Amino acid sequence: QQPVQSPQAVILREGEDAVINCSSSKALYSVHWYRQKHGEAPVFLMILLKGGEQKGHDKISASFNEKKQQSSLYLTASQLSYSGTYFCGTEYTEKLVFGKGTKLTVNP
Amino acid sequence: DSGVTQTPKHLITATGQRVTLRCSPRSGDLSVYWYQQSLDQGLQFLIQYYNGEERAKGNILERFSAQQFPDLHSELNLSSLELGDSALYFCASSFRVTPGELFFGEGSRLTVL
Questions:
Q1: Strands of the sheet with A60-65, listed across from one edge
Q2: Each residue's pLDDT tens digit, A16-28
Q3: Interface of chain B against chain A, CB under 8 Å?
């Protein structure tokens, strides 16, 4: 029931790109992405509601493949401010269940 | 500032004790969600209330209970506390009954000694 995220952690240099994947064993109706900076509360990034849909947030975008039950978060030209733990969440019978998170570290 | 208020911010107690965590949602939001965050466990969904009624339940222990009051604030009660209950407990709110954009409070850090 809990979506699986990969990788668990990634370290980048400023300006590099990263992809975070989220997959579910159950049918996906929507995928939610949040970012949590160290010592802070999670903050909403985006929701993807339709299969194949891509949405963007600054230089952060995401895709949702309903058939494959997967979503990917793309971070382009990463900035220091992108550091944090990224969580994907999937809706299941009105519950929003999150994966264990992917810790992203962006170094100068 | 998300507009969601959680109290207390920090709480230290002993095993076997009972505590109550409080959450005030954003003005106008009708849904309240409770999540538990332990090291390496991500955000574990506990329970959701919408306009005073329980809507969804996660893997919430029987020792834990929650309610949402007519003024829409919510309380999470944790009893017979164990060392493993030490965690950060987040409350989140949203306007809709189904999960949309959730606004998280800053959390209540519970330490059980």
A1: A4-6, A18-23, A70-75, A60-65, A54-57
A2: 999 999 999 888 7
A3: 2, 33, 35, 40-45, 48, 55-58, 90, 92, 97-107
